[in-house]
Amino acid sequence: MNSTALADAASTTTVNTALLPGFLDPITLLGYFGTWALVGLLVVILIESGVLFPVLPGDSLLFVAGLVAAGESAEVEKFASLWQLLLFIPIAAIIGGQIGYWIGRYAGTAMFAEGNRFLKKRYIDEAHAFFEKRGPVTIFLARFVPIVRTLAPIVAGAARMNAALFTAYNVLGAIVWGCGITLLGYWLGQFEIIQKLIEPIFILIVLVSIVPIIWEYYKRRKASGPPPPVEADAP
User: Which of 21, 27, 142, 229 qualifies as a FRET site for 2, CA 20 to 30 Å off?
Assistant: First the structure.
C-alpha cells in the first residue's frame, strides 16, 4: 500500500472533517498508521474495549474498515481483506475487554477523577449506572455505546462479577459488534455512492452512537429535578 498517498488523503480528510478532533477521525487515524493500518486499527479496538482510553472512534473505524475492504475509495486504500478484519477485530476486542476486567478487579476505579483529562469520574459513574440498570447483559450491550464499552469491563471487574460470566458476554459482544459493523460497512461499500460519502457517513455514525449517552444524561437530570431553593439568612 502506498503510505504517502494514504497520509495525503488523511490530511485532506482532516481539513474536510474539522468538526471532529483528529483522533476521532478514522481516516486520519488510518493515515497516521500508514502501512501498519491493520495493526493500528486492532490496537485502537483493543484500547477502546477496556484499556482506560474511552474516547476513540470504534464504531466509525470498524465501518470504514469494512467499507474500504469492499473496494478502494478516494480517501483511503485497501489495507486488509474482509476475512482478516472478521478474524482479528473480535480477537482484539475480546483481549481489550479482558484486560479492562482485570484492571477493575485489581485496581478498582480509583484512577478516575474529575481533574483527569481522559479518565473522568463522570465516565465511570455513567458506566456504573448503565451496569446497575441492566445487569450482566450490560457487557454485551455496552459494546454498542461509546465510552460505556470501555468502562463497563472495568466496572464489572471492580464489582467482582463472575469471571466466566463476564468472559461469555465479552466474547459474544465482541463478535457481534466487531463483525456486525464491519460487515455493514463492507455491504454498503459495494455501492459507489457510499464510497463517495465516507466523511458524512462516519460523522453521522459518531453522532448517532452518542445518542444513548445523551438520553441517559437527560433522563437523569430530569429525574433529579431542579435544585432546592436557597433560604436567605434571617436578619
Answer: 21
